[in-house]
Amino acid sequence: MVIDFSVVKEELEKQISHLCDHGLIVDADDETVTQMLGISKSDIQWVKEHQAAKTVSNIAGFKVYLVPFPPTCEHLAKHW
After folding, report:
1. Please, what is the end-to-end C-alpha distance for the chain in angstroms?
2. How many DSSP H helices and E strands does the chain contain?
C-alpha cells in the first residue's frame, strides 16, 4: 500500500488534534471528575444519549473532550 503521509497527517489533524489537543479527555460517566471540572449536565447527557464524543469547555474555560467510554488507549484508537 502506498499513501502520501501528508494526507494522513491532515486527516489526523482534523479528527484528533483540532478536537483534543491541549485538552483533557474525560469519561462522561465519571461523575467525580465532571463535577470537579464543572461540566454542564446537558453536555454530559448529550454524550450519553448520542454515544458520541463532544468538545466542551468547563467553568474555567479549559478544553475538555467528553467521551462515552473510559479514555484508555484502546478505546481512543477504536474511536478515532
Report:
1. 21
2. 5, 3
Q: What are phi and psi of 66, to 5 degrees?
A: -90, 125
Those residues whose C-beta lies under 8 Å from the C-beta of residue 11, and which sit 6 or more positions away, are none
CB 35 within 8 A of CB 26: no
pLDDT tens digits, the chain, 80 residues: what are they? 677 888 888 888 877 777 777 889 999 999 999 999 999 999 999 999 999 999 998 778 888 999 999 999 999 989 88
Domain that holds residue 20: 5-79
Total domains in the chain come to 1
